Amino acid sequence: MVKKLKICCIGAGYVGGPTMAVIALKCPEIEVAVVDISVPRINAWNSEQLPIYEPGLDDVVKHCRGKNLFFSTEVEKHVCEADIVFVSVNTPTKTRGLGAGKAADLTYWESAARMIADVSKSSKIVVEKSTVPVKTAEAIEKILSHNSKGINFQILSNPEFLAEGTAIEDLFKPDRVLIGGRETPEGAKAVKTLKDVYAHWVPEDRIICTNLWSAELSKLAANAFLAQRISSVNAMSALCEATGADVTEVSHAVGKDTRIGSKFLNASVGFGGSCFQKDILNLVYICECNGLPEVAHYWKQVILMNDYQKTRFVNRVVASMFNTVANKKVAILGFAFKKDTGDTRETPAIDVCKGLLGDKAKLSIYDPQVSEDQIRKDLSMNKFDWDHPAHLQQPSSPTAIKKQLSVVWDAYEATKDAHAVCILTEWDEFRNLDYQKMFDNMQKPAFVFDGRNIVDAEKLRSIGFIVYSIGKPLDAWLKDMPAVA
Asked: What EC number(s) does this enzyme carry (predicted)?
């Protein structure tokens, strides 16, 4: 009788939960356990209300849960029993010490590795699922081999390439699955074991096998390239406004070149999400550590351009409204970093809201998927703290913003008596709002600052709005009130 393969994933977050759910669905003969030390998170995975919002995730989890998919806080038990252990813990940016503000903090990774070594009684394949710096596998190998008690561990790198909002679809039909391993007979055998899991539903030509370092670096490189495209088109958006060009037309023309393509060429208020900034800062640090300052400087510019875009947006809002937003109500439509997710990690909305609050604006925020608690927490948190456990997060100024901020559950409530509307997430419902109704209930002059280019600017101008769309020709009002970035 063939032994049933057991998989355990340490970390029940945005990566671990959906990935393991799909593996369980596609491989009914494999037992999959997702473990986490957070009792509330595991309880949520076992409830009707999952801890993360992702289209299609509910159906997958409910189909497999209790059959071959289990969510548990019994971390050591499931790690001990598993043949393959995925590690999907946080790798936040360090906030202090060597490499602070750039380097990845591997504290959680290291403690996971030490725990695996402690509790293991049989050979295991340990899979890096978190985004980690190049050569992390080498450090993990050292920890495991020095604490192995004669047990054989093989380390694989299997980075995720999921986009929030389409994660389940990305898992069902991935562009590629990347598996990096040691170029030894044992390493090759481990790679084949993991490859066979994915081969249940992924065509073989989409499963790419590389050495460990190529797999680790490919993840950082992919995110850096994608973020670079967004910063490139955002840089062009500033030039378009200055010259009267339309960034939508420019990006459409550029994207028609098959060597470039159209994806990730939408100008916006800036990129967000848990990966882009963190991974590029990590890449910058690795380049600096390897004596490559010019390469580090090149990638750092992608981050600087993203910061510039958010600052430019805030300055445009303030300048357009007679150079002050003090005591003026500004409606914020959208707080998540993109539509179809409740994720607010590194969302541009945080910096835009903080900028407006700093000028004493009164904000009324509406997002269909983000809770008031999350919004208030995000706006009171120090930079980089979001990726650390809750007990290590230090609020910066929770009382200062309390009076200036309200969170509502309706776009019309948010915009009632407001001087301006800022659209910061491209939720579909914001395209279809009754803007005439909104205009009638706002202070005049009424402004719309479209940070996602989703509204029909001419239609809104005909209603009476003064409209700013990123990278689009400026109307007379905006030309008369120039913003200095």
From this structure: 1.1.1.22
> Which residue range(s) make up the domain with 415?
226-480
Q: Which of 275, 287, 353, 422 is catalytic?
A: 275
Q: For 358-400, how does the pLDDT look when each residue is reduced to its tens digit (9 = 90+)? A: 999 999 999 999 999 999 999 998 765 555 555 445 555 555 5
Alpha-carbon distance of 243 to 176, in angstroms, equals: 41
| CA–CA dist 201, 343 (Å, integer) | 28
Please report whether residue 220 resides in a domain: no
Helices (H), 290-434: 293-320, 348-358, 372-379, 398-402, 411-415
Residue 287 annotated to the active site: no
For residue 18, cis peptide bond before it (omega within 30 degrees of 0): no
Q: Are residues 273 and 193 in the same domain?
A: no
The 10s digit of each residue's pLDDT in 300-332 is: 999 999 999 999 999 999 999 999 999 999 999
Instruction: Give the Cα separation of 340 and 342 in Å (integer).
Output: 7
Question: Are 447 and 376 within one domain?
Answer: yes
Q: For residue 280, what is the domain's CATH number?
A: 3.40.50.720
Looking at the structure, tell me whether residues 195 and 269 fall in a common domain.
Answer: no
